[in-house]
Amino acid sequence: MIEIKKISAFETIIVRHPVLRAGKPIESCNFEGDDLPSTVHFGLNLHNQLIAVISAFEVKNKLFTEENQYQIRGMAVLEEFQKRGFGEQLLHFCENEIRIKKGELIWFNARETAVGFYKKSGYEIIGGQFEIPDVGPHYVLFKKI
Fold it and tell me: What is the mean pLDDT of residues 54-80?
C-alpha cells in the first residue's frame, strides 16, 4: 500500500542520507530553509516504510520572472525502490501541492544523472552544466505550472 503525506525535515534524513549524501556526515542532510514555515516535506511510504522524500521551498531564482516560485530539493528514492515509478508519483504529488499554493513555477538543481527522469515529467534545462562542490555536475531545470 502506498501513502504520500507531509513529513518533518528530520524524517527526510532517513532517505536523503543514503541516497544523496552517502559517506558524508549526517549533518550534510540538513538543508538551509528546511525548518521554515513555508517549506513543505513529503514522504512516500510503501507498506509503512518511508522509501522516498521530496522538499519544496519558496525560493525565487533570478533566472525566472514568475512571482510565486518553488524550489524542489532533496528528491530521493531508496536505491532498492528506484526505477519503479515511486519517484514520479511523489514528484507529481508535490507539483499538485504547489499548484494548490498558487505556485507558478518549479525549479531546481538536478544531478546530471537525474536529468532524464525530470525531462519525462516535462521539466526543461535552462543554462549550462555547473558543478556543486562535493556533489557533482548539475543543471537547473524548471517547469511552469
Answer: 96
